[in-house]
């Protein structure tokens, strides 16, 4: 198992970065009003993209705690392929909205 102090340090680092992330989104003008339009335009690709990002984080957690590299690489490759394909479609939908003047 990994040393507890290392795990605790990085957990605190991630938690400390979350307010910075949220503040940056607010400062840059993130528009959460278009979430419904995004999910309505391409619901499967947006859901698959978000799910694949969460799955990759889970794979990295398993690698950190119990898996070896030979278990991690095939799973990460499969989930990464899903993330690439669904992310391409999701970002195409975002671009279509931006070109239509919906920011």
From TrEMBL:
It is found in: Endoplasmic reticulum membrane. The lineage of its organism: Eukaryota, Fungi, Dikarya, Ascomycota, Pezizomycotina. This is Ribophorin II C-terminal domain-containing protein. GO terms for cellular component: oligosaccharyltransferase complex. Keywords: Endoplasmic reticulum, Membrane, Signal, Transmembrane, Transmembrane helix. One of its GO terms (biological process) is protein N-linked glycosylation. Residues 1-98 form the Ribophorin II C-terminal domain. The chain crosses the membrane at residues 6-28, 40-63. The keyword Endoplasmic reticulum applies. It comes from Cryomyces minteri. The keyword Membrane applies. InterPro entries: Ribophorin_II_C, Swp1. It is a multi-pass membrane protein.
């Amino acid at each position: 198992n990994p040393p507890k102090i290392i795990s605790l340090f990085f957990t605190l680092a991630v938690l400390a970065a979350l307010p910075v992330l949220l503040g940056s989104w607010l400062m840059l003008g993130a528009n959460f009003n278009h979430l419904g339009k995004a999910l309505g335009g391409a619901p499967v690709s947006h859901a698959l993209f978000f799910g694949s990002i969460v799955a990759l984080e889970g794979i990295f957690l398993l690698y950190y705690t119990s898996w070896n590299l030979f278990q991690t690489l095939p799973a990460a490759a499969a989930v990464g392929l899903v993330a690439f394909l669904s992310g391409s479609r999701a970002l195409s939908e975002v671009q279509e909205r931006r070109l239509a003047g919906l920011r």
